[in-house]
Amino acid sequence: MTVGGGFAGAATTAQLLFSDQGQRFLYSLGLALFTFVAVSGLIFVHDPRRTRLLSAALALQIPWLSSPVVVYQFAAGFGIRVARFSDSFKWGLTLGYKWQLYLLGQFPWGAGVDVLAVLMLVLLWQSAKTPSTAVESSIIKTWLRLTLVTMTVGGGLAGVTLVVQHFSSDGGHWPGYLLSFALYTYAITSGLIFVHDPRRTRALLVALALQIPWLSSPLIAYEFAAGFRCTVAVIGGSFKWGVTWLGANYELGLLEDNPWGVGVNLFAVVMFVLLWWSVKTPKPTLQPAAVPEDPETQPHSFAATDDC
Questions:
Q1: CA–CA separation, 268 vs 64, rounded Å?
Q2: What are the pLDDT digits (tens) for 24-80?
Q3: Among 57, 99, 234, 300, which is least packed, fewest CB within 10 Å?
Q4: Torsion angle, alpha carbons of 74, 75, 80, 82, to 10
């Protein structure tokens, strides 16, 4: 809900911010909200005991308000919304992100809640009150772990949202959309497995490897990136490159009029090598410190002597 939905929402809001200058204030506010949600999730991934920001991120997603003065709706990841507007009942499901921020408009009066956000907040609060044992630290560095989670979970959900939008507007290429949906779903799953147990990196390595090649030919065209990418390629005899800092990028085609070429995603290569190296590096074992013995608890021995 937080990392994936926040990342997907921030990516789209950032694009709108640069393309529509008339709504800069509202887009900036939306970008700040989604960024806050994503950061709260990453902090929670780093240390599950730090739940204050995550609780605030969930609380921000609960209300659904509508009035001539202000309209507010904000959801990241998943949501189940119920509301009553102008004597009519409304409900909705969210996959990816959803937000509405308006001021002073012709809007009906109404209010509602995100039931899923309420449930998650209650469960998080209950879990935080329950004492737990310390989490075993991972040999993978914090910045690398958080970057990998952002790439897979955040970029994966952004990709799923993008594929669903494209499929809704153009259903004629459904095999490519279905395969793209499966790839991004796999990226999300590999990231969630890694969050659950940082020692389980096999699926994550495969997800990174799938993002490395960039292929173009009349037979097949393939490019798949989640989260971040920095690609270089030679396509049709000319040098090309591309950078994606937020969001997702994909291209899947069969038997199309594409030039010959090949390229590589440098960012995915670097992440793959760093993760593989971290896994291969043996984890140092900590020897228990010697506990000094208490003289009072030591057994006493007596020797008999014969003095002359």
A1: 39
A2: 888 888 889 998 998 998 898 888 888 999 999 999 999 999 999 999 999 887 888
A3: 300
A4: 0
